[in-house]
Predict the structure of Lipid A deacylase LpxR family protein.
Amino acid sequence: MLRKNLLFFTFLFTLLCPFYITSQENHFKNQIRSTNDNDIYVFYRDTDRYYSYGVGFDYSFTADKFLGLQNIFKNKITNFYNIGVKIEGYTPSGIDEFVKTDIVEGPENFDRPFAGLLYAFLNTTYVFDRSFLKAEVLTGILGPSSQARNLQDWFHESISNDPIYDGWQFQLKDQFLVNMNLDYLYDFNPNNNWLNFFGKGNLKLGNLYIQAAPTAGFRLGKFEKPTHSVSFNNSILSPKKTTEIFFQFSIESRINLFNATIQGNLFKDDPVSVSDLNNLSWHMNNEIHFSRNRLSLSVIYSWSTGVLDTAQNHVFGIVGVAYRF
């Protein structure tokens, strides 16, 4: 009798175990996220310049079928989708000085033009054993129609009590933008649970950016593998019951061939654009990420050398909050 019972429970465990494991690995199907980029988060700085701010919202989701994108890369493990919108504002340095005078400086006094950017994007993340590929299409508008000036004016007047910058009337003219962006990451040591090294490559082609960037980095702490981690906006694939808390550092060498927020229109001259572009720049990120079950929080400090020949180093902060359901 004991032997028969043992055989029965062994059979039952063998039968139910795959379902139990599957249920344990189930992930949420949807995620909403907001991001806010601003140099106001750099406490030892008190002026806007270069990449002044960015506000974005996006929605990630899984689906069996979506626009036929699920048919690409037959050898993938899984994939998911992300759609979103973002508005960004760019300003020259030194604007806090001339804004206190009665003289309205012209574009000849700016080391980079004022630029407003509003865009929407759709990307698909394809997950493989030790890597992932994000393929993105971005479309939007650069110029006054982006409403980046109005958003900054409202924030300065109503929230931060900063000055209103007169120079926005000299911002780059309206143009329609289309860009293709590719990100590929490879996990160098997937079996280490507390220290992880990765390499990443990025390629951007279009009339917003033309650039390529190799990146190397590491993570230290408690984390999911990169294909499922919050720091790469892949946490929609992480288990429902999960906790991540870790530090991440990365350094990137960026080859810049074209930047519309500085150089204006790729196909014709803009009188307020700046032609001089530093074709090689360095970028570093220091990041802290926390994720538990449905909620995620990310805080990032981004440092870069000047993309312009005459520009100084630039630092800004990024705060991101995501909710899975």
Remarks:
- The helical segments are 2-25, 95-98, 148-160, 260-263.
- Residues 1-25 have pLDDT under 50 and may be disordered.
